[in-house]
Amino acid sequence: MILLKPGFEYITAFFGCLYAGVVAVPAYPPSTSKTLGRLDAIIADCRPTAALTTPEHVDAIHPRLNATAPGARVFTLPDIDMATADQWQPTTGKSSDLAFLQYTSGSTGNPKGVMISHQNLIVNSTTIQQHFNNRRSGHVVSWLPPYHDMGLIGGILQSAFVGCPTTLMTPIHFLQRPVRWLRAITKYRATASGGPNFAYELCVRKSRMKTWQSSI
């Protein structure tokens, strides 16, 4: 399980799982009672053998793993010895092998894990590239969380698949000031960006509020 906040470490951890030939389980570190409940449900469903997180979340994660997945190890970023990268050996696998488990939000019940194979990922990435006409000369801007399918596949993996640059911001960075997203699209001349309906509604609402305040 990858239990890290959005950032470069999250992306590195995901690709590390692929390189190691292990099944990645993108998730979010516990912060509220709601996220703790979601984490418990995911652990119970996938029974992970290891989790990667940061030191401040170990106390919340470790007992939950022990209760449902005994023997699972908890690693923190400071535990990772970068020198071990020299020992990496290419893995052998098939396109039908499982790449990662994508869990639903759990808003209407327990999160459900969707099994995504390497072939699924390639086909999906190809379809996105064709329909959005993404090119190496393009630029992706995304604030979507990496544990969400749109943020991970559309915002991060698509740029790696196509070979174009990506500008990322955290979800909190966007929610605090939605205009940051729009400014990033303009500044970096983004050719691909997106979000759920509420993101556009939030941009409109905040923009109207700003205009109204300026007119007083």
Automatic annotation (TrEMBL):
One Pfam family from the record: AMP-binding
Alphabetical keyword list: Membrane, Transmembrane, Transmembrane helix
* Cross-referenced InterPro entries: AMP-binding (IPR020459), AMP-binding_CS (IPR020845), AMP-dep_synth/lig_dom (IPR000873), ANL_N_sf (IPR042099)
Q: Which residues cross the membrane?
A: 7-28
Which is a Gene Ontology cellular component entry for this protein? Answer: plasma membrane
Q: Residue ranges of the AMP-dependent synthetase/ligase domain? A: 2-210
Q: Name one GO biological process term.
A: fatty acid biosynthetic process
SUPFAM superfamilies from the UniProt entry: Acetyl-CoA synthetase-like
One MF term from GO for this chain?
A: adenylyltransferase activity
Assigned protein family: Belongs to the ATP-dependent AMP-binding enzyme family.
Q: Which PANTHER family match?
A: DISCO-INTERACTING PROTEIN 2, DISCO-INTERACTING PROTEIN 2 DIP2 -RELATED
Q: Could you identify this protein by its name? A: AMP-dependent synthetase/ligase domain-containing protein
